Known about the structure:
Helix content is about 45%, strand content about 15%. It has about 290 residues and is α/β, with parallel strands linked by helices.
Amino acid sequence: MIENKVVIITGSNTGIGKETARDLAGRKAKVYMACRDMKKCEAAREEIVLETGNKYVYCRKCDLASMESIRKFVKQFKKEEKRLDILINNAGVMRPPYSKTRDGFELQLGVNHMGHFLLTNLLLDNLKQSSPSRIINISSIAHMRGKINKEDLNSETKYDEADAYAQSKLANVLFTIELAKRLEGTGVTVNAVHPGIVDTEINRHMSFYNSWVSTIFIKPFVWPFIKNPKQGTHTVIYASCKPELEKVSGKYFSNCEESEVSDLAKDQSLQKWLWAVSERWTRLNETKN
């Protein structure tokens, strides 16, 4: 049962995040929409409240591209809630032109991985207090082609938007597996999810979606395989709510089934290396208190 459980969903003013918030609000969960754009978040919140009749849906400012914003969000949340039953790390960017977060991270690495790494670790106390509780990291099948560039993790020397995206999605899976080990025995589980190829705003930087050639010649053939945002929530909801997954952790799900991850994702030394770098770059140990 999800009723009265406290849920945080990042990037929930649009796309999969919004539809996940709508679904869980409909199940009478207490939903915190953690978003960068407060105007869009409030519009989405009002829509969800009116549709579901659930007044316990809240907008809270959380910009995953800013470590300061993440820390402020966590501080405010801890004042409001002791519990946290489900954390859904959904927010993401995909293949933007090269840019950096406020803390100097390449945008995709910063938002898709570093921001969620910090957010999750700062909320672990709440999750442990509420066990059995769950963390869901939205990854992608793109992690299969991802590599962690140890020599140029931040894409300072060379930037390829597709490679940087795949790297960030591989980072999601590496983080999931390493965190699962660290959470053994706590009652907190963490799993990664591939929601499918979904037509959402995350695709706005992709030339495929923006060119007239693809609109006329390509989209009609691939459209049957592309999910709408509501369909994209199915595996997210499955991982968040299914009772039989209460003790399942460190796994990767696609189409509501456990799936294989890439060989690199299974590399234990790489999992530990990425954790150590992420801990240092986000200054995690300086900001826990």
